Amino acid sequence: MMSNARTPFVAAAVAGALAVLIGAFGAHWLPVYLAGTGVDAELLAKRLAQFDTGARYHLAHAIALLALIALPTRPSATLRWSVCLFVAGIVFFSGSLYVLVLTNTPWLGAITPIGGGCWIIAWILIAFLHPSSRNA
């Protein structure tokens, strides 16, 4: 596990809790809210799908973040960057989708790929982590 893992651990726990909370909001309250804004059925379905995508990827990467900080690896810049990029990916990818849906601001979709890029780089960096001995 990372040395001084409290901050990344707290980030993973908060990200996971928020993913569940936001997912529940999206499943139970969001359809009513969006229907009340007068959007047509086609746009409503599109926005609900976008929100769901954000929530699913948010939860998946919160879990991946938790697994990453639990890996038996030596502390390194690569590990720190991976953690930071997972968090940035959640903010930019999922966060932009949440705000896009809630505010009907389509240009925010241009920000979403930044989060996806953060995640891609984080996953690639994980390949360069050096496992530490479990007996050390």
UniProtKB/TrEMBL annotation:
Keywords: Membrane, Transmembrane, Transmembrane helix. GO terms for cellular component: plasma membrane. The chain crosses the membrane at residues 54-71, 83-101, 107-129. The keyword Membrane applies. It is a multi-pass membrane protein. It holds the Pfam family DUF423. The keyword Iron does not apply. Its main location: membrane. Signal peptide: none annotated. It is found in: Membrane. Belongs to the UPF0382 family. This is DUF423 domain-containing protein. It comes from Allorhodopirellula heiligendammensis.
